[in-house]
Automatic annotation (TrEMBL):
Descriptive protein name: Uncharacterized protein
Protein species of origin: Tannerella sp. oral taxon BU063 isolate Cell 6/7/9
Top-level taxon of the source organism: Bacteria
């Protein structure tokens, strides 16, 4: 029956049950000949209510016949209802960085970009002093650094491109001739246009 229902071929089902000795049953018809339960399909589950006549209780009766009549909603209707149901999923929201965190992150980016991702001992000491003065915890500082590190891991070729870009950018905006030079260098080094943009953006703060 379950397979028939899933395939959409079952819209109605009647189940007949006989009992010679049933005790403690509530809601019997006056002649105890039949109990009819009408089911209304609401969503995936089934809800049932006894008919208004079935309100008397009896403790013990013989030859009781129970008839359960189930009506199912068409599968297509159920699928449509499920498709239209909006499920809200919890979303993680990135809290905006504080001014102190932005300041620390900017200093970290400067150190990271200056030597192709390598930190000198003096740079690390400087960042540590800055972290303490800005009131940033060690854990939070690590989170801020980790948010940048994956995108700024540079190969030798990418570091070479970055150094050339920094020289051009140090004089102000990139001129057309400098951009053509950078593009030729990028192609020679085997760096894609998208990756070059990421590298350049790493120092555009």
């Amino acid at each position: 029956m379950a397979t028939q229902r899933l395939q959409g071929g079952l819209l109605e089902h009647v189940e007949q049950m006989e009992s010679q000795n049933i005790g403690g049953v509530t809601a019997a018809l006056p002649d105890l000949a039949e109990i009819r339960i009408d089911f209304i399909i609401l969503s995936i589950g089934v809800e049932g209510d006894l008919s208004p006549e079935a309100e008397k209780a009896f403790k013990q009766k013989d030859n009781l016949s129970l008839r359960i009549h189930v009506k199912f909603a068409p599968v297509s209707v159920q699928y449509m209802a499920n498709a239209n149901e909006v499920i809200s999923l919890p979303q993680q929201s990135d809290s905006s960085k504080t001014t102190a965190e932005q300041e620390y992150l900017t200093a970290y980016k400067e150190c990271l970009a200056s030597n192709g991702g390598e930190f000198s001992d003096s740079e690390r000491r400087l960042l540590e002093r800055m972290r303490k003065s800005l009131g940033i915890s060690v854990k939070r500082a690590a989170e801020l650094e980790d948010s940048l590190t994956p995108a700024l891991q540079l190969t030798e070729a990418e570091s070479e491109y970055l150094e050339e870009y920094k020289l051009c950018a140090a004089e102000g905006s990139i001129t057309d001739s400098e951009r053509r030079l950078l593009n030729r260098m990028r192609k020679t080094l085997g760096i894609s246009d998208e990756r070059a943009i990421e590298i350049e953006s790493s120092i555009n703060y």
